[in-house]
Amino acid sequence: MSESPQEEIKGLISNLKEWLRYQGRLGWLGLPRSEPLYGAELREGRISNATLLEIQKELGDCQRCRLAQGRTHIVFGEGSPQARLMLVGEGPGEEEDLSGRPFVGAAGQLLNRLLNRLGLTREEVYIANIVKCRPPRNRDPLPDEIAACLPFLVKQIQCLKPRVIVTLGKVATQALLGTEAPITKVRGRWQKFQGIRVMPTFHPSYLLRFERERQKTWADMQQVMEYLAAHETD
């Protein structure tokens, strides 16, 4: 039996409210702003590694969404607190869940090789994910899971104040930028998040399956390195 018009409208309103709450957690207020959210904080000096530790302490033994039920470890993130480059993935996989570290599986090994080819090491950048617990069967994280976890990533970004953020794959790009655009449409094109330059590119796990796309990611990362080199003293 089909829903009545009134029931359908109620359902649409409920969905709209959930979407607006989700967008609000992402920092989107629905109206144009002359200053990006948290812009003043992002223009201030760097914050020490102790602040990252405070965020990790606040996260604690997180039970804010259903992903806590099946996890082995929270994967907080790792790297240099002075990193000029931050990489943001989707979420932990099986190996990351077991180790408590981001990008340690096959995709992580490919990411390491890419960084090395660029003259970087993991210790010089900062690596984190949109969600910090592994989704079951490595599915995409759900909107409410992202909404529960994203504020902690935003705090990490505010502490690090990286010069550039690279979003790896569809989920990271859409969640951080508040867009539904497919990764194929936005990769390689500069975006901004709270005043910080963002370069979307393919996820390393995608590149493991489609090697022909690796050259595109290499080109994206070349743009990143050129920008960082041009703003070395900023």
Can you describe this structure?
The protein has one domain: Uracil-DNA glycosylase-like domain (Uracil-DNA Glycosylase, subunit E, 3-Layer(aba) Sandwich), CATH 3.40.470.10. The longest helix is centred in the first third of the chain and has 22 residues. The chain is built from 10 helices and 6 strands; from the N terminus they run αααββααβαβααββαα. With 234 residues, it is α/β, with parallel strands linked by helices.
Give the tags.
47% helix, uracil DNA N-glycosylase activity, 234 residues, Uracil-DNA Glycosylase, subunit E, six-stranded mixed beta sheet, DNA repair, 11% strand, Type-4 uracil-DNA glycosylase, globular, alpha/beta
